[in-house]
Design a protein that fits this description.
453 residues, alpha/beta, Aspartate Aminotransferase, domain 2, Aspartate Aminotransferase, domain 1, 2 domains, seven-stranded mixed beta sheet, five-stranded mixed beta sheet, disordered N terminus, binds pyridoxal-5'-phosphate
Length: 453
């Protein structure tokens, strides 16, 4: 499946064949996870599982055809750094599950957030980001992109208008996580997306912690970023990432605000990416990210890992259901435990945070991250972690297995006590990523480890 064919499939699939009939896009995530995208079976062998196209390069047609491929005037795979059929099947399926129009798979979640920004911002430009983001993304924005001349203005997400106040003529994007930890307060997606649309600034949402259960495009986000390493892969085997284009942002009408897509690119016959995309019926944001950033930076996902992530996607809706149900049971157990001071879980939030949880989560879901504070503080946190038998002690989230970490002695140990508190990490705070084991076994393990703490 080529880029052009992918675009044709997505466009065609959105058109009802019979007036009033459900469109392909109206299918449910459970179905799209198995059938989304144009791959049905391998045309050569009939294989139903997406094959791993473990090849660096693809045979070119005659010289004239090759010219067209290289000029992006015809669609087709050339070299796996830029596209590959296994990657393509993953991208199409993810885009459909997410409700977007196109996706680009990348080597990691970090590559995805870097590409999401670098596709729009250059030296001298700035972005506005929520403060509550993953530490690796923070370092990327505050240090590495700063070194490239791209400034990040960090603002408090509880005040959506702070995004407007931080915006100037050189602001190219807003960035946030839908469900940032440790505070687990849902980001005001619709409010900030609407502010961005006033200025022509797209909201990019990292939805790693809440696939399927928070739907950023339904609330006006323009681009979704994933660390597919987490729930999408789901088994802790493969590092990967993706950016998804919602197809809902007017890039072509924003010449001055979005120069990367609207100014002629000398490395592609002096055409703009809006023109290049129009000519082949594709989507400019993803086309440029692939044709420019993958070409130049090369953070390609391997076909093997793209295959693993497809396996993950196929059971994502099923796993997410169990993750969510288990997390609610665990949070309710902790809430009434006498040695537990406080439980951080969206279901228990009130005020503005509670309202946002009610607005943005699909009914009955709150994600599978649960934070809690032990009354005994830092030492109790350490003893609790050492007492766990079933939960793994590691710095990851979204695995099928349950995971625990004590941030003040691990991920946040380099921060001063005051800075730890500012990020929401108290000395006794423990973060759990609840897996899909039987909930009674999880609760039994937590109970015995808390007793030992
Ligand atoms: N975004 C979030 C919310 C994350 O938690 C992580 C990793 O922990 C990343 C992005 C980076 O993803 P990766 O580890 O796949 O590069």
């Amino acid at each position: 499946m080529t880029i052009q064919q992918s675009a044709d499939t997505i466009v065609k699939s959105a058109e009802p064949k019979v007036p009033g009939a459900p469109t392909f896009k109206s299918r449910h995530p459970e179905t799209l996870a198995l059938h989304g995208g144009s791959f049905r079976f391998d045309p050569t062998t009939g294989a139903v599982a997406v094959p791993i196209y473990q090849t660096t390069s693809f045979q070119l047609p005659g010289t004239e055809g090759a010219d067209k491929l290289f000029a992006l005037e015809a669609a087709g795979h050339l070299y796996t750094r830029v596209s590959n059929p296994t990657q393509d099947a993953f991208e199409q399926r993810l885009a459909e599950i997410e409700g977007g129009v196109a996706a680009l798979a990348l080597a990691s979640g970090q590559a995805a957030s870097a590409f999401a920004i670098l596709n729009l911002a250059r030296a001298g430009d700035n972005i506005v980001s929520a403060v509550g983001i993953y530490g690796g993304t923070w370092a990327l924005f505050a240090a590495t992109l700063k070194g490239f001349g791209i400034e990040t203005r960090f603002v408090d997400a509880t005040d959506p208008e702070a995004f407007a106040r931080a915006t100037d003529d050189r602001t190219r994007a807003y960035y946030a996580e839908s469900l940032p930890n440790p505070k687990l307060e849902v980001f005001p997606i619709a409010e900030v997306a609407a502010i961005g649309r006033r200025f022509g600034v797209p909201l990019i949402v990292d939805n790693t912690a809440a696939p399927l259960i928070i739907r950023p495009f339904e609330h006006g986000a323009a681009v979704v970023v994933y660390s597919a390493t987490k729930y999408i892969g789901g088994h802790g085997t493969s590092i990967g990432g993706a950016i998804v284009d919602g197809g809902n942002f007017p890039w072509a009408d924003l010449g001055e605000r979005q120069p990367n897509l609207n100014e002629p690119d000398s490395s592609y016959q002096g055409k703009t990416w809006i023109e290049k995309a129009e000519a082949i019926g594709f989507f400019p944001y993803i086309l440029r990210a692939r044709a420019v950033l993958l070409r130049d930076i090369g953070a390609a996902i391997s076909p093997q890992n793209a295959f693993q992530l497809i396996q993950g996607l196929e059971t994502l809706p099923l796993r997410l259901r169990q993750h969510n149900e288990n997390a609610i049971k665990v949070a309710e157990f902790l809430k009434i435990h006498p040695k537990v001071e406080n439980v951080i879980f969206p279901k228990f939030q009130s005020g503005a945070a509670g309202d946002r949880a009610a607005t943005y989560f699909k009914p009955g879901t709150y994600g599978a991250l649960v934070g809690f504070e032990l009354k005994g503080g830092r030492e109790a946190g350490r003893r609790f972690i050492d007492g766990l038998e079933l939960f793994y002690h590691l710095a990851n989230i979204g695995d099928a297995r349950s995971l625990a970490i004590h941030p003040s002695t691990t991920t946040h140990s380099q921060l001063s006590p005051d800075d730890q508190l500012a990020t929401g990490v108290t000395p006794g705070y423990v973060r759990l990523s609840i897996g899909i084991e039987h909930p009674d076994d999880l609760i039994a393990d937590l109970a015995q480890a808390i007793d030992a703490a």
